[in-house]
Write a structure and sequence with these properties.
The protein has 211 residues and is α/β, with parallel strands linked by helices. The protein has one domain: 3-Layer(aba) Sandwich (Rossmann fold). 41% of the residues lie in helices and 23% in strands. It is built from 7 helices and 9 strands, in the order H-H-H-E-H-E-H-E-E-E-H-E-E-H-E-E. The protein has helices at residues 3-14, 18-38, 49-58, 82-91, 105-118, 149-159, 174-181; strands spanning 70-74, 97-102, 122-126, 136-137, 140-143, 160-161, 165-170, 185-193, 201-210. The strands form 2 sheets. Strands 3-2-1-5-7-9-8 form a 7-stranded mixed beta sheet, with helices on both faces. Strands 4-6 form a two-stranded parallel sheet. Strand 8 (185-193) and strand 9 form a beta hairpin. Helix 1 (3-14) runs parallel beside helix 3 (49-58) and helix 2 packs antiparallel against helix 5. It is globular, with a radius of gyration of 16 Å.
Length: 211
């Protein structure tokens, strides 16, 4: 898909301002420059960046409202979905304090560079959350391309406090992962089809308790 068509598709889906598109273009430029050294995204997704990463990341923004004051992105990587959601929440006048948790020092430096240049209300936590004793709280928790669902749920159960909703992006194995997780966890959730892939979905969890 041509880049201009991708941006038009993104704009129609998210209904963001021209200024926000400009911010995302700056983010894109910084990402592509850093990618040459850091391998931030899959090479096969570069030509479809606005759909595969920006639009994909943005699809939970309609379920975040002004009562949500804080967001945690676990394993943020190149900033998906946390940075994209921060940029769009600013467009929608949602005062969402965002925290990105990332273990790679090089990616942390990249994220801070984007945050500083786009003047975002975002902090980056340099932690290997799987191994270090770090606990966190936030109204909204988002997880994309991190770990298998059962590992992610156990991590959140062990280390997250005072959350209201969790959004987890699932891929082709999502149905199987949910089935396996339901054997261990009592999960109250909504599942929505992905806006970018017929093989994917996003689940919104409102209750998580071990059986």
């Amino acid at each position: 898909m041509d880049k201009s068509i991708q941006i038009d598709t993104f704009s129609r889906y998210t209904r963001v301002s021209r200024e926000t598109i400009i911010s995302l273009k700056k983010y894109e430029s910084l990402l592509l420059k850093a990618h040459k050294k850091l391998n931030l995204i899959g090479n096969s997704t570069i030509e479809q960046l606005w759909i595969r990463h920006f639009l994909d990341s943005s699809q939970v923004i309609d379920y975040i409202d002004k009562n949500d004051k804080s967001l945690i992105d676990i394993g943020s990587g190149a900033g998906f979905p946390g940075l994209v959601l921060s940029i769009i929440s600013r467009d929608r006048k949602i005062a969402l304090k965002t925290k990105l948790i990332e273990k790679s020092s090089k990616k942390v430096n990249f994220l801070n560079d984007v945050i500083n240049k786009l003047h975002l209300n975002v902090d980056v936590v340099h932690k290997n959350i799987m191994e270090e004793p770090y606990y966190f709280s936030g109204d909204v928790i988002v997880v994309r391309a991190f770990k298998p669902l059962k590992v992610t749920l156990q991590l959140i159960h062990n280390k997250a406090r005072n959350w209201k909703k969790i959004f987890i992006f699932l891929g082709k194995t999502g149905k199987h992962e949910l089935l396996q997780a339901s054997k261990i966890w009592d999960i109250e959730y909504k599942q929505r089809a992905s806006a970018t892939s017929s093989d994917s979905s996003v689940i919104e969890i409102n209750k998580l308790k071990k059986k």
